[in-house]
Amino acid sequence: MTLAVLLGGIGTLVGFFLSAEGYLPWDAMLKSWAAAEDRGAEATAGDDNWVVGDVAVRSRYDAVSGYALTGDRKGGKLWEYVPPARGEICDSAEHAGAGAVLVVQSAGGRDSAGQPASPCTTIIALDARSGRQLWKEERERGKGLGDTAALPNPDLDAGGDLAVVAEDLRDPEHDARERPAKTDGARGKATLRGLDLRTGTLRWTAPLPDRCGPDEVAVGEKRVVAVLSCEAGGRDKREVSELTVAAFDRTTGALKWNVPIDARRPLDPATSVYIEAVDPLVLAIGSSDKNQGATGLFASFDDNGRPRPNIDFSQGDDGVIDAGSLMQTAVAGDRLYALAGYWHKGNHHTVIAFDLKTGRRAWSEEMDDPAAAMTVNGGKVTVLCEWSTQAEAITTLIELDARDGDETDERHFRDPVPSPVSAMYEVGGLLVTAGRGGGAPFIAWERW
């Protein structure tokens, strides 16, 4: 009897360690393939990745590359676009369109201080399957626009067969309350344009509200959305400068509505605002001392621009949602999913699902280990967790039912996932993780 108990205990311990190290069937994640590693590099604004059909595309400062996701060449590099001379990829569209990606490149490298030596002046569309340049658009200085080196990067996005380019080249000033503003200037200094993604042909130029220019843009299935920086005065007789959010028709560019981001008080134009999702519209509003009570939260709007209840970044005992970091939030349907974290002898995280219509929690699930990344796809929440509260090695995959938060799967990686993870994709039954900076740009993992 004693021997049986002892053997049973040993078997349990062996099983535990085999499971934790990814050596038990139905409990493991094995590396299926990995793209060749890049040399180390600091992540820049040009770092991004997309999955377009059966090709994974990765951009960073020195190149844009396409990798095979299927067939005999899985993980192999299919093509590479390298900016000419000493040019750099300095920005990109967040989303890919139908078979193409958008990037912005500069003409020259960096100065002795490590700063770009020339402005980001060229918008380029690349075919995702071949890497062929479909079209490019050079930004010219033009009369009254000053040195192009001082111009802000254009903001880009794509969806379907549409590319959208937003630029605000108005000269910065301050309003009566010392809020940063921009002079209205000549027509054409602030523009929002819709282009054919494959040809670059102009489809429409959106009629922007008086004294407003686009800060950020995103393309959705139903509409194009832009965060606008609007100057005081003008036809709308604004008392002070503020940020608004506007929706435009995808087909014609017609303005559908433009509303204040905060209905109670003007939101300072210096506030950081990021478009989390377009359908439904969700904005992440960064913390700011100038708008306490109106920042550090998610603002959501219905299809007609009516505000829904806000959701705070701060979640009490569960900690704070780090909305400014990669892979911490996701929107699916009328729910916002987020990782809230706090530090107490190590990192701790809770996955929280919010109902965007009410602003209330639908459910929450505390993770046993720190969460490094999260995404939502196909009705499930996928979370990558680190080995312990004191370690950064990503060793565990947790899957939750997106409806109620019930755990549906837990698996362990035999080889730790390189950190940080900038994206996760489900491709042909495999989980594909995207890296950032140096290392392997893409790694595929098989459930075993």
Quick summary:
The protein is mostly beta strands and 448 residues long.
Global structural class: mainly beta
- Total beta strands: 35
| Portion in strands | over 45%
Task: Give the strand order, joined by hyphens, for the main sheet.
Answer: 29-30-31-32-1-35-34-33
The CA-CA distance between the termini, in Å, is: 35 Å
Overall outline:
globular
- Spans of at least 5 consecutive residues with low confidence: 11-19
Largest sheet: 8 strands, mixed
Task: Give the fraction of residues assigned to helices.
Answer: under 10%
State mean pLDDT (0 to 100 scale): 87
Radius of gyration: 24 Å
Number of alpha- plus pi-helical segments: 1
Describe, in plain words, how this protein is organized in 3D:
The protein has one helix and 35 strands. It is globular, with a radius of gyration of 24 Å. The protein starts with a helix and ends with a strand. A hairpin with a 3-residue loop joins strand 16 and strand 17. It is mainly beta and 448 residues long. Strands 29-30-31-32-1-35-34-33 form an eight-stranded mixed sheet, with no helix packed on it. The longest helix has 19 residues.
